[in-house]
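User: Hey, my collaborator sent me this sequence without any context and asked if I could get a structure. I don't really work with proteins. Can you help?
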Amino acid sequence: MMRAVRKHTDSPWMLLYIERWLKAPAQLEDGTLVPRDKGTPQGGVASPLLANIFLHHVFDSWMVGTHPHCPFERYADDVVVHCRSEAQAHSVRRTIEERLKACKLEAHPQKTKIVYCKDSNRRENRNHVSFDFLGYTFRPRPSLNRHGEYFVSFAPGVSGKAAKAIVAEIRRWRIHRKSGTSLEGLSRIYNPKIRGWVNYYGKYYRSALHPVFSRLNRRLVRWVQRKYKRYRHQRRATRWLRAIARKEPAWFAHWQMGALP
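Assistant: No problem. I've predicted the 3D structure and written it out in structure-token form, which is a compact way to encode the shape of the chain:
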């Protein structure tokens, strides 16, 4: 992948196209053209692509040549670099900041930090033992090995920010007010979105999603209470919904992963 990008971006035609994009004036709503002397247009369709090409040369290729023994992941401008020791981490951070400064960039002062991957084998107390990346929080978590014994692993799970966003969207659905729709109908409307959350955020440490989907189950219980008079009581509505979840788990993806009412 990296070689393919380098091959195309180094061609004269590609460099010419990039130069034209960078020098193209911005057009206002009234049609006025405003000349630009740096950067790419805010919200421009090519801006993310140009930024990615730029960071590929500024960071990706440079890291491969300068720190070949430090694996890293980059998505847009978020980067995770793996180091073997704290001393190496400080050294690599210093050289990265120098590289970014030379390219007129700057590492985010609050988000850039050295994280200690604490687990059963690394037990020291440090200030930073977690970080967020791509909607996941990587931190020490209790896990179960193949012998049925608990240990602490440094593992990813849905981040608090992502969980809050999911809960906020579930709240906007106002499922409990859609008493004119059947439960199967609600499934057809919302299950594709729920399945997407399960497939992405449930890839690792799926149990971290249970508190999120318990909110959805409570909304469904309230829907049952509003739709059926005989299930006005919350406990009876919950029992009825749980029976449906066991009979038709495919209606909602979170039921299939075991997050029952």
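In plain terms: The chain is about 50% helix and 15% strand. You can pass these tokens on to your collaborator as they are.
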